[in-house]
Design goal:
The chain is of the alpha/beta class. Helix content is 41%, strand content 21%. It has 8 helices and 12 strands. The strands form 3 sheets. A 5-stranded parallel beta sheet has the order 2-1-3-4-5, sandwiched between helices. A hairpin with a 2-residue loop joins strand 6 and strand 7. The longest helix has 20 residues. It starts with 6 loop residues before the first strand and ends with a strand.
Length: 232
């Protein structure tokens, strides 16, 4: 019997990769379903209760990006893209379309399970629908009620934009946020695509929260894609 109630849908047309992923899931006690086509994945979503989708983009009937868009029209279920497409623009496009994370083939079982656990923790938090009054990552904490950020128990003095940026990252712990997504959320839809302002803002925030800003512990850069607040 599975040790987990969650069901993972594996959408992949390469049998070797299916065998690897399902072996890992089985070893970890997860239940799973598989589909080799986009249409089969959408049908499974309608007929079955699915908690998380592992989605390849290069499917034989139509592109996995369209699967993301269709699922996002009615579900917030976590979607982790698993693809051989390693171009930054492909990753950013998938994340902007609504994917929660992106794994580039090949990947290890350890990395796969780490990403799944993070996504399912987010799912559990959403189900509770009761945000915690204080969110903590390592020695960095955000008190949502008091609007205070502390590091090692000491209050940090952040600018309004720095606070907004860190709040956005805390609301998406462990999830990659694309540069464009952050720009829209922080500066508004009319700000455009100027990333220099975001880089400057991020550098200032890192100087306040990172012991060594050039080697960040908390806010990691996903090169060519965006940023991620680590999930510890």
């Amino acid at each position: 019997m599975s040790r987990h109630e969650e069901i993972v849908l594996v959408v992949e047309d390469n049998q070797q990769i299916i065998n690897f992923i399902t072996y890992v899931l089985k070893q970890e006690g997860f239940s799973y379903l598989t589909s080799g086509t986009a249409q089969g994945a959408l049908s499974a979503m309608v007929s079955q209760h699915i908690d998380l989708m592992l989605l390849d983009l290069g499917l034989p009937d139509f592109d996995g990006m369209e699967v993301i868009r269709q699922v996002r029209e009615w579900s917030e279920m976590p979607i982790i893209v698993v693809s051989a497409r390693d171009q930054d623009r492909e990753k950013a496009a998938a994340l902007d379309a609504g994917a929660d994370d992106y794994l580039t083939k090949p990947f290890s079982a350890t990395e796969l399970m780490a990403r799944i656990r993070v996504a399912l923790r987010h799912l559990s938090q959403m189900a509770k629908n009761q945000p915690q009054p204080v969110s903590t990552v390592g020695e960095l904490s955000m008190d949502w009620e008091k609007h205070i950020v502390t590091l090692k128990g000491n209050e940090l003095h952040l600018t309004p934009l720095e606070y907004s940026l860190l709040s956005l990252l805390f609301k998406n712990i462990g999830k990659v946020l694309t540069t464009q997504n952050i720009l829209r959320e922080i500066y508004g839809v009319g700000y455009g695509t100027d990333t220099q302002a975001l880089r400057t803002l991020m550098a200032g925030l890192r100087r306040k929260i990172e012991e060594v800003p050039a080697k960040p512990r908390y806010i990691l850069t996903e090169i060519g894609v965006g940023y991620r607040l680590v999930d510890e």
